[in-house]
Amino acid sequence: MSFTIKEASERLGCPAHTIRFYEKEGLLPYIKRDRHGNRLFEQDHLDWIRLMTCFRATGMKISLLKQMVNLALDGDATIPQRKAILNQYKEQLFRRQNELAEALDAVNNKLAIYEEIEEGRLPSESRLLNQMEDRHNQQTKRE
Amino acid sequence: MSFTIKEASERLGCPAHTIRFYEKEGLLPYIKRDRHGNRLFEQDHLDWIRLMTCFRATGMKISLLKQMVNLALDGDATIPQRKAILNQYKEQLFRRQNELAEALDAVNNKLAIYEEIEEGRLPSESRLLNQMEDRHNQQTKRE
DNA sequence: GCTTGCCTTAAAGTGTGCTTTAAGCCTTAA
DNA sequence: TTAAGGCTTAAAGCACACTTTAAGGCAAGC
Questions:
Q1: Which residue of B126, B133, B140, B142 is the best one to mutate when testing the A interface, meaning the one whose CB has the most A CBs within 10 A?
Q2: Where are the beta strands (DSSP E) in B5-143?
Q3: How many Cβ atoms from other residues are within 10 Å of residue B98's Cβ?
Q4: Nearest partner of B9 among B35, B36, B43, B46, judged by Cα
Q5: Cβ–Cβ under 8 Å, residues A71 and A83
Q6: Residue B71 Cα to chain centre, angstroms
Q7: Could you report the per-residue pLDDT of A71-129, keeping only the tens digit for each?
């Protein structure tokens, strides 16, 4: 069972142009063609594209994906190197988790401050942007 | 107490050029200058830059930061709009958390498969890239 | 006085990852 | 048979966020 690029695109929710781009970048070796030169994708390819999309969405660079493809093409002997790459990437994922947690903290903090200002429990000049805003108000009043 | 751009840069771990870029983009209103035209940063500015850096690291667009600055400059009446922006951003953070969790799952899965292949408990053609690799091997053997 | 070094600005350049365009071929339906 | 619509390619274009370059000013130390 193989799929046209349109079918692949639909199943993956990924533009056909992007899939072609990935193939051109060497991320999709061994895509067969029909007698008209149209690409024929196997289920493996769809799985691999899905995995790449997942990794891409979380910051893996295309150059790193390409390295992994190239290593895979060189056989099982490169598995240690592929593991090393994935472990580094995993570290990156942990760092991003921390960044997200920090940002979530910061945004909740900011939202809480806005609520307090809205309820009159905090003067508007309390923090950060609000200070600038206040300075702006003072300035315009002086004019 | 105010800081030169160099001090700000050192304290924030952020290139001076980037800080100037942010000011040019309108993200840092009301930066004063000394008699030579050199920027003088207040603690508020450093705090705000730090917050922006945190938001930027987790995918907030500069255009959105700018919107927030512009709203803040328009006073407390815009707090509901700022809250709306932050709440949307918060949704985005949650989506990213899910993406990270999925990627972490996928990478652990892949690592587990590599270990099994290394230990001989799985043939190398088992999944995804390994299949391509296998196809490659067959092909080269046929030649 | 002159060099060093940091500051200023505006503008051009870079890296990444698509996305769009242009030109053309093949198949199918009217 | 001809127009529509999908496929192909190579190449150009775009969005984003810096980053680098170029040209020059000011101040302190030798």
A1: B133
A2: 32-33, 39-40
A3: 11
A4: B46
A5: no
A6: 23
A7: 999 999 999 999 999 999 999 999 999 999 999 999 999 999 999 999 988 887 545 55
pLDDT tens-digit readout, A21-78: 999 999 999 999 999 999 999 999 999 999 999 999 999 999 999 999 999 999 999 9
If you count residue pairs, one on A and one on B, with CB atoms under 8 Å apart, how many are there? 144
What's the rounded Cα separation, in Å, for the pair A4 and A46? 11
Work out the pLDDT band at B120, boundaries 50, 70, 90: confident
Confidence label for B125 from pLDDT (cuts 50, 70 and 90): low
Using CB atoms, pick whichever of B107, B130, B136 lies closest to residue A89: B107
B104 pLDDT tier (thresholds 50, 70, 90): very high
Q: Which residues neighbour A116 within 8 Å (Cβ) at sequence distance 6 or greater?
A: A122
Q: Between the CA of A62 and the C1' of C12, what is the distance in angstroms?
A: 27
Instruction: Please count the other Cβ atoms lying within 10 Å of the Cβ belonging to residue B110.
Output: 21
Name the closest nucleotide to B63, judged by C1' and CA.
D16
Location of structure tokens 């940002």? A103
Q: How far is A97 from chain B (nearest CA, A)?
A: 7
